[in-house]
TrEMBL record:
EC numbers: 5.3.1.1
InterPro entries: Aldolase_TIM, TIM_sf, TrioseP_Isoase_bac/euk, Triosephosphate_isomerase
Broad class of enzyme this protein falls into: isomerase
Protein name, per record: Triosephosphate isomerase
Keyword Hydrolase: no
Annotated positions binding substrate: N13, W14, K15, G175, S211
Similarity annotation: Belongs to the triosephosphate isomerase family.
Key words of the record: Cytoplasm, Gluconeogenesis, Glycolysis, Isomerase
Compartments where found: Cytoplasm
Reaction(s) catalysed (UniProt annotation): D-glyceraldehyde 3-phosphate = dihydroxyacetone phosphate
Length: 247
């Protein structure tokens, strides 16, 4: 699927949720939508369900991907999943550097850059996530944290970065039910956009994530530098998710 900046993108991150039965119901509803009424959208599923996603969504305009990727191509890396494996299951996207992986699994900026590179090597679009924790927010370190996270990805060069999607997700807004204000998110997105300009990757999409729902998504989408949303909880309920993609 060709992703153009002019089209809004909404991605559902299922995290560690789902079952074969629940997914069948959700995916079957998604595959039947009238795409002329929705923006570009896709889902990021747990590894074991990628085969099911491929079977149900194959031939539709919906894109899908995984929530993690190995930075290595193959070898003795127990528990890891390579870019080539994701490719075999039709993944066109992969999440990289989600805060839950940075914090719970201690992924570093260097790991994240390695994973983004591995994805690009097989034409899988990395959706690279950035965001400050509550402590960093409270101690007014947001811009310096974002700057260091984004800089390490920009080191891969403008040509590579132009093939990515970025997502700003303030950690304190994730799963809290209470999103950042659209104005606050816009300020951070504009800051990231300025950094992207320095490497000539001006036009990539920057999504906002953190308690996005159908009731607040439109207020983000009107912001000039917010090109869509990365949705957690609301992506697990078909009508809630489609309520966001239909705006
Ligand atoms: P919520 O939408 O549940 O806050 O999750 C956001 C997120 O982490 C998406 O990657």
């Amino acid at each position: 699927m060709i992703i153009k900046k002019s089209n809004r993108l909404v991605l559902g991150n299922w995290k560690m949720h789902g079952s074969i039965l629940e997914n069948t119901i959700l995916l079957s509803k998604l595959r039947n939508v009238d795409h002329s009424l929705h923006c570009d959208f896709g889902i990021l599923a747990p590894f074991p369900y990628l085969s099911q996603v491929l079977t149900i969504l194959h031939g539709t305009k919906i894109c899908w991907g995984a929530q993690n990727i190995s930075m290595y191509n193959f070898g003795a890396y127990t528990g890891e999943v390579s870019a080539a494996m994701l490719k075999e299951f039709g993944c066109s996207l992969v999440l990289v550097g989600h805060s839950e992986r940075r914090i719970l699994y201690k992924e570093t900026n260097l790991d994240i850059a390695g994973k983004a590179s591995a994805a690009l090597s097989l034409d899988i679009t990395p959706v690279v996530c950035f965001g400050e924790t509550l402590d960093e927010y409270n101690s007014k370190k947001t811009f310096s944290v974002i700057e260091s996270q984004v800089s390490s990805i920009l080191e891969l060069g403008g040509k590579s970065v132009s093939r990515m999607i970025f997502s700003y997700e303030p950690v304190w807004a994730i799963g809290s039910g209470s999103a950042a204000s659209p104005e606050y998110a816009q300020d951070i997105h504009a800051f990231i956009r300025g950094m992207l300009h320095q490497v000539g990757a001006d036009s990539i999409r920057i999504l906002y994530g953190g308690s996005v729902k159908a009731s607040n998504a439109a207020s983000f989408f009107v912001m000039p530098d917010i090109d869509g949303a990365l949705v957690g909880n609301a992506s697990l309920v078909t009508d809630d998710f489609l309520g966001i993609t239909k705006l």
